[in-house]
What does this fold into?
Amino acid sequence: MGVVLGVKGPAVTAMAPFALAVIAGLSLFVSSLSPDVISASTGIDRVRLFKGESVRIPLAIGSSSGRWMSLTSISLSDESWADGKVGPIVEGRSDIVVTPRIAGRFEGLSAVANEVDPLGLFEYHRTVKIEVQLESLPTALRAKGEMPKARFFSVGDNPSGSVGTGQEMFGISEYQRGLETRDIMWKRVAKLPQDSTRLPMRVREGSTKKTVKVGLAIGSGQEQEKREATVDKVAEALGQLGNDLLLIGAGLEVFYRVGGRLHTIVASNRAELDDLVVGAWIESDGMVDPREMAANVDLLILESDNPAEVKDLAENGPTPLLVVSSASKPMRLPPRTVAFTGREDLTELAGRVLTA
It folds into this structure.
């Protein structure tokens, strides 16, 4: 609690020093008769909104020292993840306008309440905790109802007929070494430019995954702002991947570790995806072996500023990597590795891990 001595009302500079001291002491004594308790409640347990959107939350403010003190204002403390402003207090009520700058889940807001003593000589600053959980959805989830747009991945429901395996055609991808050559679409190849190096091929329903498994290897021990930036990028990545997968009838399963124990979250519809992107994976700790995690998933999201670690994982494992990094300079990434800063389009990656 901070105390600021100020002069308000009629000038007191002409008063004798003794009288001024008596009045100040009396005011301070009266102010100390009541405990320093100020409450600020919203009546709301949880608020969910998109990153960058603003929400107005009602606020009820009470002070146990109301008989002796006057509550003049309340302001939000600086938050690394959001901008906020508290309105004027009218009969113990106010409101907060909060605008999250990053995606994630955040517990409570800190504020500073200002009170003055009965004679207006002292101003007190008291810290107030506003209990409310804010869930900030990534902007990737704003896009609804549009099919993924990729250069060589499309989706269809056309039966394959009597030719080929007899399975229903799920989509079109690009031929990669090791795949069956019988599904190369030679008629389409004939129409391609002569310098084209891509061979379109059928992707049959039997060869696609119904659920894509994504593992998280994001570190612990980071300072708060760096950790929040990492969570923001991972939430955006999961939002993009999940949205694309749901639109083509597949699901998303996320694997993460907390306290050394492996946990999973599954999203098979949009409501579950909203819950997933701000889910318990945010509490992931560093007790995870990226190599072990990569061996059991279709895609590993790795938080790393270490080029050697990224290269080792990419060259010694079959799992594609999505790397989020806080390094000031971009890393040179090996094949099957995608760097993500929060803005890249991951539609092509979604198609690749779905049909791998």
User: Anything to note?
Assistant: The two ends are 60 Å apart (CA to CA). Residues 224-247 form the longest helix (24 residues). The chain has three domains: 2-137, 141-146+208-355, 154-207.
